[in-house]
Amino acid sequence: MDSHKKYCDFTNEISSTEIYKGLLAFGLFTEKLPPVFSSKSFFDYCQTNNPSFPHKPTEYIYFESMRNTNVPRALGVPNPATYQLLCKYLSEVWPELQKFFEEQTKDQNHIISRIHIRQMQNTNSLFLMNYKNWRIDGTPEPDLLLGAKYLVHADISNCFPSIYTHALSWALVGKDLAKQTRNDSNAWYNKLDLYVRNIKAGETHGLLIGPHISNLLSEIILTKIDAHLYSKGWRYTRNIDDYTCYVSTFEKGQLFLTELSEQLDDLK
Predict the structure, then answer these.
(1) Phi, psi (degrees; rounded to nearest 5) at 150
(2) Are 197 and 189 in contact, with CB atoms under 8 Å apart?
(3) Nearest-10 crossing angle of helices 250-266, 212-231
């Protein structure tokens, strides 16, 4: 397998300060919008004035972007104040998230998730949908193809809109502990769940498509699933919610789809 950087190397090299700035100053708006839409000045305002925004659910702006398939993609822009509170809290618990991502991915011989939060050249953003750098990411496909006769493609339908915010806690600390402590408002993972719900009008179902922080949050759940599938011997790559698995028989391909579905169901 490729001896390149591991997934956790990318998360560990980002500091709490950098994750806050990257997500707030350059990650509020989807890259589908023109560059005139920027939150850099809002970030500068927060840095200078250290505002104290109310901790409460807020509405968000909903709009649609037409895909090349003529099917609209539902996008959202959160209330900047509520988004700032989420970014700030996420930066405070960033060391905990770094430990989590390292635990889930440290033993993997290749980077399963190919599109993720990372530091990039020639941009202040921490996320770009189509960013690739084979020199440091590696190219695991040639090794994964060895002995494989079948290629399995799987895509999670409505991935972001179907994510259950409580599942973030389930993935971070385990479902049993999360349920036992669900009423503990001081637990850091419960606070994260609350801040996530607040940017979507208090709703427990769905992450907004567009803000870069949603990609980071979805990775909490998806890397947890990756760790389980990898431990079962499955070797594949994933582009956010798009899976490509290499198997030796048709039956194994069907089994991969079954086990992937089971893991997705377990985290709702």
Answers:
(1) -130, 145
(2) no
(3) 130
Q: From CA 114, how far away is CA 178, in angstroms rounded?
A: 29
Residue 230, both tokens: 């990898």
Q: Which amino acid is at 250?
A: F
| Average confidence (pLDDT) over 37-60 | 96
- Residue for token digits 């809290």? 89
Spatial contact of 125 and 22, defined as CB atoms under 8 Å apart: yes
Between CA 195 and CA 34 the distance in angstroms is 27
For the segment 126-179, what is each residue's pLDDT rounded down to a tens digit? 998 888 887 888 889 899 999 999 999 999 988 999 999 999 999 999 999 999
Residues 62, 76 contacting (CB under 8 angstroms): yes
Tokens of 140: 């695991």
Q: What is the pLDDT of residue 188?
A: 97
Q: State both tokens at 3.
A: 């001896």
Q: What is the spatial distance between Cα 154 and Cα 254, in angstroms, rounded to a whole number?
A: 11
Q: How far is CA 102 from the centre of its chain?
A: 14
Using the structure block, give the residue that is written with the tokens 């599942």.
167
Confidence of residue 37 (pLDDT cuts 50, 70, 90): very high
Identify the CA nearest to 172 among candidates 212, 222, 211.
222
Q: Quick check: 169 and 193 in contact, CB under 8 A?
A: yes
Q: How far is CA 37 from CA 25, 26, 40, 64, 224, in A?
A: 11, 10, 9, 16, 33
How far is it, in rounded angstroms, from Cα 87 to Cα 47?
Answer: 13
The torsion angles phi and psi of 75, rounded to 5 degrees, stand at -120, 160
